[in-house]
Each structure stands twice: as structure tokens, then as C-alpha cells.
């Protein structure tokens, strides 16, 4: 399964995320306002959506950090993001 990341999950990003899930993909969502503003959308999208935090948390996707590169399941990605250390 392919995972698609969205930076900006407002009206357009949320709609494209819904379409991606309907097409069989997992999605990772982020925005500049922080994870609390994504909670409803992630809950609506269900088990194929992960909240990756705010843009300030983007370092977790850089080389030598847990979420960079490997193919992870939703649960593995959630754990990797939660345990990442700078």
C-alpha cells in the first residue's frame, strides 16, 4: 500500500486525502496550525490516516530519524513519530 503525505490539510487537502483513502492508500496529514486542528479529520478518515504533527515536527522525517525512508505500517509510523528524539 502506498502512503501519501499532505502538508496542508484544509478543505482541499482533506478532500484529496479522502479520495486517496477511497483509492486504497494510507495518508499522513500535517498543517501549520498543529495536530489538535487535525483531530476531527484524522478521526473521520479512520485507520488509514496518521497525524504527523505540525510543520515544526517535520524534522522527524529527515535523514537519520525514525520516520525517514522506511515503509512503515500506520502503527509503526505512529510509534516512530511518538518516540523520535532530536
Report on the architecture of this protein:
By secondary structure, the chain is α/β, with parallel strands linked by helices. The protein has one domain (3-83): NAD(P)-binding Rossmann-like Domain (Rossmann fold). It contains three helices and three strands, in the order E-H-E-H-E-H. A three-stranded parallel β-sheet has the order 1-2-3, with helices on both faces. Helix 2 (39-45) links the parallel strand 2 (26-31) and strand 3. It is globular, with a radius of gyration of 12 Å. The protein starts with a strand and ends with a helix.
What are the SSEs and their pairings?
Blueprint: E1 3-7, H1 11-22, E2 26-31, H2 39-45, E3 49-54, H3 74-83
Parallel strand pairs: 1-2, 2-3
Trace the largest sheet across and list its strands: 1-2-3
The helix/strand order is EHEHEH
Proportion of helical residues: 25-40%
Q: Supply the helix-strand structural class.
A: alpha/beta
Per CATH, the architecture is: 3-Layer(aba) Sandwich
Mean pLDDT: 84
- Stretches where pLDDT is under 50 for at least 5 consecutive residues are none
Number of strands: 3
**Whole-number radius of gyration?**
12 Å
- What form results from the Cα inertia axes? globular
For the report, how would you describe the main beta sheet? 3 strands, parallel
How much strand?
Answer: 15-25%
Amino acid at each position: 500500500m502506498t502512503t501519501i503525505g499532505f502538508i496542508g490539510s484544509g478543505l482541499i487537502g482533506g478532500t484529496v486525502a479522502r479520495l486517496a483513502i477511497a483509492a486504497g492508500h494510507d495518508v499522513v496529514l500535517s498543517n501549520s496550525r498543529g495536530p489538535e486542528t487535525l483531530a476531527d479529520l484524522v478521526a473521520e478518515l479512520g485507520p488509514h490516516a496518521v497525524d504527523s504533527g505540525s510543520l515544526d515536527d517535520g524534522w522527524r522525517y529527515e535523514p537519520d530519524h525514525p520516520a525517514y525512508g522506511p515503509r512503515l505500517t500506520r502503527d509503526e509510523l505512529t510509534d516512530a513519530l511518538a518516540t523520535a528524539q532530536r
